[in-house]
Specification:
This protein is α+β, with helices and mostly antiparallel strands. The chain is built from 6 helices and 11 strands. Helices cover about 25% and strands about 30% of the residues. Strands 1, 2, 3, 4, 5, 6, 7, 8, 9, 10 and 11 form an 11-stranded mixed β-sheet that branches. It is globular.
Length: about 230
């Protein structure tokens, strides 16, 4: 298990690096994944750049600098990538499950054949995750799971406008727990301004861990996952 995977696994279980204003610089866990993870009082840069270069860009007394525009712009220039949105990173720890606020969608079903690559959630998942699985509901919901950063299991949901406000997003987020191994944490990235999605994941038992921004190859069309 690489170092980033260990940090994520520990964070999912409530164990975090010291809140000492520290900065950890790691190589990319794969050619696909690069970015910055901000935890309480500690940041992790995972990109194939020299650690000494990173430290020269980040003022040691500025805890927010690794997520700030000046550093992210410099990091993108150095790596030839572009930054996606800064998302809230949430996790459903292994062995936990959601409170049953709503009956599970009865008509959730695995798609037969290739997933609809035109759907924005599906297209984003196929570009940025492996082992992608898609499930849909007749009442307008889409649930996508797959392995993302450092091999972690990630989930994204989408609810059609006509089906919003009835708890379907929360139910889909809850359904995802049964689609990954019970000893694995389940992760979600949600844009901070997407209050409806944040409420849905929190109601399904997810807890906030930190913030994360992923760097995509230029022209990749990055999109938030939650």
């Amino acid at each position: 298990m690489d170092t980033l995977a260990k940090i994520l696994k520990s964070a999912a279980q409530g164990g975090f690096p010291p809140s000492d204003g520290g900065l950890t610089v790691l190589p990319q866990p794969s050619p696909r994944d690069a970015g910055v993870l901000a935890l309480t009082g500690h940041s992790v840069v995972f990109a194939d750049v020299p650690p000494e270069w990173v430290r020269r860009q980040v003022p040691p007394d500025d805890l927010g600098a690794p997520m700030g525009p000046p550093f992210l712009s410099a990091l993108c220039g150095r790596t030839g990538r572009e930054a996606g949105s800064i998302d809230v990173l949430l996790v459903l720890p292994p062995g936990t499950g959601p409170a049953p606020h709503r009956e599970e969608p009865r008509d959730t079903r695995a798609l037969v054949g290739p997933p609809d690559r035109a759907h924005p959630r599906v297209a984003d998942a196929l570009a940025h995750r492996s082992h992608v699985r898609v499930r849909t509901t007749a009442d307008g919901g889409t649930l996508v799971t797959g392995r993302g950063v450092a091999g972690r299991w990630e989930v994204a949901v989408e609810v059609e406008p006509s089906a919003r406000g009835a708890g379907l997003g929360r139910a889909l987020a809850a359904t995802a727990r049964a689609l990954v191994p019970p000893d694995e944490a389940l992760w979600a990235q949600v844009a901070p301004g997407n209050a409806a999605s944040l409420r849905a994941f929190l109601a399904a038992g997810f807890v906030p861990v930190g913030a994360e921004v992923l760097l995509r190859p230029t022209g990749d069309g990055a999109e938030t996952a939650g």
